[in-house]
Amino acid sequence: MSKVNISMTNDPSAEPRPGCFMEPLGPMPRAGTPEQQIALQNGAWTMLELYETPAGRQGTRLSNAWLGQKAWRVQIVGHYHMWEEKWVAPLVAATRRRGHDFLLGTTVQPGFLRVSAVWRVSADPDPTSRFFEAHYAGFHMLFPEDLSFAIHANEGDYAVYAGPEDFIRAALPPEAIGAAATADVVEGIEEEHGEGAIDGILAHYAPFMLDR
What we know:
- A hairpin with a 6-residue loop joins strand 6 and strand 7 (150-154).
- The protein has seven helices and eight strands.
- The relative contact order is 0.20.
- The radius of gyration is 16 Å and the shape is globular.
- It is of the alpha+beta class.
């Protein structure tokens, strides 16, 4: 993976910096020119809002205004599943059934990565897995150009599948859906970060959770 180390300026020809934290991205193509990537990332950010993480830093999450306007539902899953075949295969199949041959992937992190590279992620298990693994340690998102669903992932702890209910149910294994599945994710996060570590996120997404 080539990591471009540039300072973002007002130069529209400057390539947005990669937001990869790990190495397995491989030779994934960028989603167009620098200008096109910036426009695509700005589109992704229309789905998001900033919040303060339990560690006191700024992060991103899907905004309730967007979720409500689109009548989307959400399901929280453990991020470590995002490069397992059992999990990626149904996501890819559901993506292709909706007519998408590729998705867009980018870092959605405040600060110096606010303008980040946007990758063209083929709707196949291997590149989809590599995208999530390469961005494991930061806030990142995978979505189609028409913004009809999104998977937003938070610093290696969890990922949020968001979109129409039929898409979420098709894109996840059945055992990953519902209150019991969410409780398993919460238990794992609290074991690592302490009791209540995800309470704010659960409260934020509660109106949109599946089978809650």
